[in-house]
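hey can u run this one w/ adenosine monophosphate bound, need the structure tokens asap thx
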Amino acid sequence: MNLANLLARSATMAGRSPAVFLGKQQLSDYATLVRRAATLGHALQQRYRLAPGERVGLFMSNDPAVLEILFGCWWAGLAVVPINPKLHPREAHYILSHSAASLAFVTRDIGDPLAAAQLPLPGLLDIVAVDSDAYAALLGGEPLAKPADRGPHDLAWLFYTSGTTGNPKGVMLTHRNLLTMTLCYFVDVDSARAQDAALYAAPMSHGAGLYALPHVAVGARHVVPESRGFDAAEIFALARHHRDVSMFAAPTMVRRMVEHAAARSEDVSGVKTVVYGGGPMYVEDIQHALSVMGPRFVQIYGQGESPMTITALSRAHLMDLAHPRYLERIGSVGVAQTAVEVRVTDADGRTLPLGETGEVVVRGDTVMAGYWLDEAATAHTLRDGWLFTGDMGSLDDDGFLTLRDRSKDVIISGGSNIYPREVEEVLLRHPAVAEVSVIGRKDPEWGEVVVAFVVAREGATADPGSMDEFCCQHIARFKRPKEYRVVGALPKNHYGKVLKTELRARLHAAAADDSSTPDGKQK
Ligand code: AMP
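ok here u go:
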């Protein structure tokens, strides 16, 4: 089924329901939204002669027009290529050219620098700014009566991975993938309802935008903050105004919201649900979040290759404080979502016994069709019908999956595996530590040794001796860091994920410096 039918159905059922808001201001109801999408779809076919299956890039800050463009493209049978607005024009250029996009929609703040860079894009017919006359003209015609026929395996969304190593890869997500993701939202994540408001504080090119789908399916409201991004004060003000607000947030955003709410005794009653995921949420942090904001959280674990849909840790699990394994559970990523099977395997793909750590593999209708124009990477990642996630984890006998780390982040020291996350969880409980990231450094004697990069809490001193003692009290000696580096901030990518590659590069550079000094001493 074409995803555009989700919008068509909601508009038929409740055309006068409010649909899109910028801040507090309503811009359209569902009847208007569907007419704009269907008209845009018609213009894409007529004016640009785009044929089903062609790709259309969106290089846009969060904007109310994102929704009509997504659905307009699907209406015409096209595939969308949303690009993270924080990317450099050169990175956006790579994605537009790799996907052979025929057209790109932009917001001027990031579209103008892209156009000014004048990078060659031979296949691109036009770059259309959404506040231009050209865009308005596309919406001035007649709507296309019904969405183009699309099969379950047709491409809907080409999702470029964050690419912390090498070029980003284009994950091919089909209409079936995203429809299944949508249905899993209702079963495993939250009960979206027409009275809810989806708030877009995280980039709509990724998780937040994907979760527009369940909210369109139930005819809910869609709110783009005027800041177009993340601002804790604005979020709470909008939540108080709109009520029943749901949003997707990366763990760093949750942390900032919670700090803000705690510092100002903020009224958080307008927030219905914060779905968090995309990176590790430490036990300490989620406990604090629950104590400040109450039962408003749900965790999901997914990756572009199985979008938003591998496991979920429900509101009920997060609130089951009396459960004997409560702390273990809130440190996990929950249980397999309804439409997928999850296993933990050894290097040869054999299922490991419960409790043992191995690679997490996933099978189900949310799993991508493959990587765009990259057969080798597809064959490496999709094997025997299973998606090899590259994440290491273990399952318990209640089905809860605990993630350790990406397989490439595991530290092997003296032949033993050390999972950085475990060391990070311990150090975060130290009173002087605000943030921490643990990586391995090559070592002639041990193979690798553990190094912790630590950001101290404001006004506190992160003393290596005290952190070392703290680790000895909580984890095996061999897991404790051999070195602590206190830094002002951790390097993070556009999604707030710590860039361990960058930390490794720093260690590498420091080692090179040391080896050129006569005594080669560690700093
Ligand atoms: P991306 O494809 O950019 O969304 O990144 C997906 C990766 O983020 C996953 O493979 C995990 O390594 C990590 N990730 C996603 N969700 C979670 C979560 N809830 N907890 C820990 N790591 C996560």
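The pocket of adenosine monophosphate is lined by residues 161-162, 277-280, 299, 301-304, 333, 389, 391, 403, 406 (CB under 6 Å). anyway lmk if its weird
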